[in-house]
């Protein structure tokens, strides 16, 4: 008889709202349905459907939009081993065969456990940042070494080769999906691909709420600050740039108190108590933090 899995794959106390990721609810729900939901059911049921678990998830989109943040949160959400986090270029070695060896090593623990237990009960996660820097279209490198090609082949072999592993999930991240070898994007490999775009106004509001939570909880934000207004003024800002904006506003607020260069760096208690980040500090910050994707005259209307 089929029983529910005794080992919870998803942490039972997990809630979307605790993720600290703003504006990506839709993307997250999609990732969850497409990449993880099947892992909650017993493997026998999944095989009756004629499907297998997703082993590769690709998050792609502009820099600073929260891809790494989501990948880490997924790691926390799943009852998995501490994720292995690798930056693409770290894998590459100038020594013959070493890069492939590095890839094999990443999968070693998962493999050994799979062999020993013969099931998928404990999940191993590998998070691969800057995937495009290593897994470029084979033959596109033009350096004649073929090292990159071997690395692509090695990852393909590990993801869906002869010795298939059901206890592994590889999360890849890239700003340039177009550069990645097509073979890696096919079913069985990085088959679930989700675009993480720049946040819209509602998303920006959520990110502003997350990034100012501490200062709001501690009463350090001025009453004149309207996060909705700021969400409207930060078109084309990524989550990372919103984080930068909040930092910059804080620095303006602090500097107002100390007035660097004005012969007043000795604070008194009042100065400390009066520290607030006000609307004007955010306006100053908006002049300082320029989004990489630019703001056109049209956007400011
Ligand atoms: P890259 O492509 O450059 O690696 P990324 O998409 O992986 O960028 P992150 O490293 O996840 O971006 O984001 C950097 C930081 O910006 C995060 O640690 C977080 O503080 C903030 N941030 C980005 N996006 C969000 C978001 N959607 N919600 C809350 N914070 C965010």
From TrEMBL:
Residues 53-200 form the AAA+ ATPase domain. It comes from Hanseniaspora valbyensis NRRL Y-1626. Belongs to the AAA ATPase family. The chain holds residues 234 to 534 of 771 of the full protein. It is found in: Cytoplasm. Required for vesicle-mediated transport. Catalyzes the fusion of transport vesicles within the Golgi cisternae. Is also required for transport from the endoplasmic reticulum to the Golgi stack. Seems to function as a fusion protein required for the delivery of cargo proteins to all compartments of the Golgi stack independent of vesicle origin. This is Vesicular-fusion protein SEC18.
């Amino acid at each position: 008889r089929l029983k529910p899995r005794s080992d919870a794959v998803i942490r039972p106390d997990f809630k979307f709202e605790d993720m600290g990721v703003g504006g990506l609810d839709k993307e997250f729900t999609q990732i969850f349905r497409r990449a993880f939901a099947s892992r909650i059911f017993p493997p026998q049921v999944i095989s009756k459907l004629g499907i297998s678990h997703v082993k590769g998830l690709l998050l792609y989109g502009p820099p600073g939009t929260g891809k790494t943040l989501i990948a880490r949160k997924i790691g926390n959400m799943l009852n998995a081993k501490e994720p292995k986090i690798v930056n693409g270029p770290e894998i590459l070695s100038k020594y013959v065969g070493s890069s492939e060896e590095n890839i094999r090593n990443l999968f070693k623990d998962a493999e050994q456990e799979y062999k020993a237990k013969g099931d998928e009960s404990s999940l191993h996660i590998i998070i691969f940042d800057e995937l495009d820097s290593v897994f470029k279209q084979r033959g596109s490198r033009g350096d004649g070494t073929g090292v990159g090609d071997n690395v692509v082949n090695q990852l393909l072999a590990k993801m869906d080769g002869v010795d298939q592993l059901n206890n592994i999930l590889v999360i890849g991240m890239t700003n340039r999906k177009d550069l990645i070898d097509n073979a890696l994007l096919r079913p069985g490999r990085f088959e679930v691909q989700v675009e993480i775009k720049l946040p819209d106004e509602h998303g920006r509001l959520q990110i502003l709420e997350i990034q100012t939570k501490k200062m709001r909880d501690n009463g350090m934000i001025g009453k004149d600050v309207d996060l909705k207004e700021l969400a409207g003024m930060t078109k084309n800002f990524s989550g990372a740039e919103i984080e930068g904006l909040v930092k910059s506003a804080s620095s303006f607020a602090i500097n107002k108190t100390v007035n660097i260069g004005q012969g007043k760096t000795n604070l008194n208690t009042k100065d400390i108590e009066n520290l607030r980040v006000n609307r004007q500090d955010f306006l100053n910050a908006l002049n300082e933090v320029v989004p990489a994707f630019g703001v056109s005259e049209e956007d400011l209307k």
